[in-house]
Amino acid sequence: QVQLVESGGGLVQAGGSLRLSCAVSGRIFSVGAMGWYRQAPGKARELVASIGISTNYADSVKGRFTISGGNAKTTVYLQMNSLKPEDTAVYYCNFVMKVTSTDTSRNYWGQGTQVTVSS
Predict the structure, then answer these.
(1) What is the 3-state secondary structure (H, E, C) of 72-117?
(2) Is 63 exposed, middle or buried (0-12, 13-18, 19+ CB in 10 A)?
(3) 45 near 92, Cβ under 8 Å?
């Protein structure tokens, strides 16, 4: 059974940094794209950053966050610098991948990790 395992969230003061990690557990066939989303209380889940054919960032995090992937494309990281209170949310990693060669590409989600930025 394939799972995404996240780590790295926590409490940090404004201006600080955190690094999130997400790793695929289990055998997979291929990865099409990887990304990070976040959801703040009372708000919809939003894309933070993605990496695939191209790399994309939400305007609110450009210049502060950096997404990167491991060489085997089974791990994705999110380096978050200059954190602001408005970055407080549950962060979810996302992989678009095929588990087997005959599978269709599907979305897989991590369990979520809380990031809290105090002012």
Answers:
(1) CCCEEEEEECCCCHHHCEEEEEEEEEECCCCCCCEEEECCCEEEEE
(2) exposed
(3) yes
Instruction: For 89-103, write each residue's pLDDT tens digit.
Output: 999 999 999 999 999
Statement: residue 21 has pLDDT above 80: yes
Pairing between β-strand 10-13 and β-strand 113-118 as defined by DSSP bridges: parallel
- DSSP character at residue 29: S
pLDDT of residue 42: 94
Tokens 């940090």: give the residue. 12
CA dist., res. 86 & res. 66, Å (int): 17
**Lookup result for tokens 């990693």:** 93
pLDDT at 71 over 80: no
- By the 8 A CB rule, do 22 and 42 touch? no
Candidates 94, 38, 105, 86; CA nearest to 69 is: 94
